[in-house]
Design brief:
The chain is an all-alpha fold. The chain contains 10 helices and no strands. Helices cover 76% and strands 0% of the residues.
Length: 209
């Protein structure tokens, strides 16, 4: 998961480009094609696009809070389908397509960490990678490159992406526009807490019952 306000691209020559892309994404909130743009943005961000879909999701949800969960569902579906594309890039076209993307996001160390988690914890390692605040595109490409079990990858993506986008939608539905700054500042901390509680529940079920 990426931070909802900051770009994951760290190259010093990129800030102006990223800012323009951010503003372009945000501009779709005022268009009648905003929902369609949300789907395709979510799809593209899962494999290569630098701006997280939360930017547009938050803007749309704030404009029509009663449709927050509908927007979250569209965002989730687009992201999971885009994740399949990312997985395919990793397993079929890493050298020509995947590696330049990973290079762009300085993601090689993250890939090694994801692989180590998968080797150690299996599905739970995949789930942690899917939920925690790392660039989702790096996760999807890594999953394909290291040939993670596809169904575990999909299941972890469904849990991770659903939690991310529906949590944002729920906060806006409940609290409205004033919650935006809280989401920007603390959402990654909430995601980490969610992972901790999820794993704690798993160990309780496994060892205490």
């Amino acid at each position: 998961m990426e931070n909802t306000s900051d770009s994951t691209v760290t190259h010093s020559s990129k800030p102006n480009i990223i800012r323009r892309l951010y503003d372009w994404v945000l501009s779709w909130a005022d268009s009648r094609y905003g929902v369609t743009a949300l789907f395709f943005l979510s799809f593209a961000e899962s494999s290569f696009f630098p701006i997280p879909p939360d930017v547009l999701l938050i803007a749309l949800a704030i404009s029509i809070p009663t449709k927050s969960f509908r927007f979250a569902l569209i965002c989730t579906l687009g992201s999971i389908l885009g994740g399949i594309l990312g997985y395919s890039i990793g397993i079929l076209g890493y050298e020509s397509i995947g590696k330049p993307i990973i290079d762009l996001y300085n993601g090689h160390a993250i890939m090694d960490g994801i692989k180590a988690q998968y080797d150690t914890y299996g599905f739970w390692g995949v789930l942690v990678a899917a939920v925690t605040p790392i660039p989702y595109k790096v996760f999807t490409i890594s999953a394909g490159f290291f040939e993670f079990d596809f169904f575990q990858f999909i299941f972890a993506s469904i849990i991770g992406r659903t939690f991310r986008f529906f949590a944002v939608a729920a906060l806006i539905w409940k609290f409205g526009a004033p919650i935006k700054s809280f989401i920007d500042k603390y959402f990654n901390l909430l995601a980490t807490l969610f992972v901790f509680l999820l794993l704690l529940g798993f160990f309780v079920i496994k060892f205490a019952l």
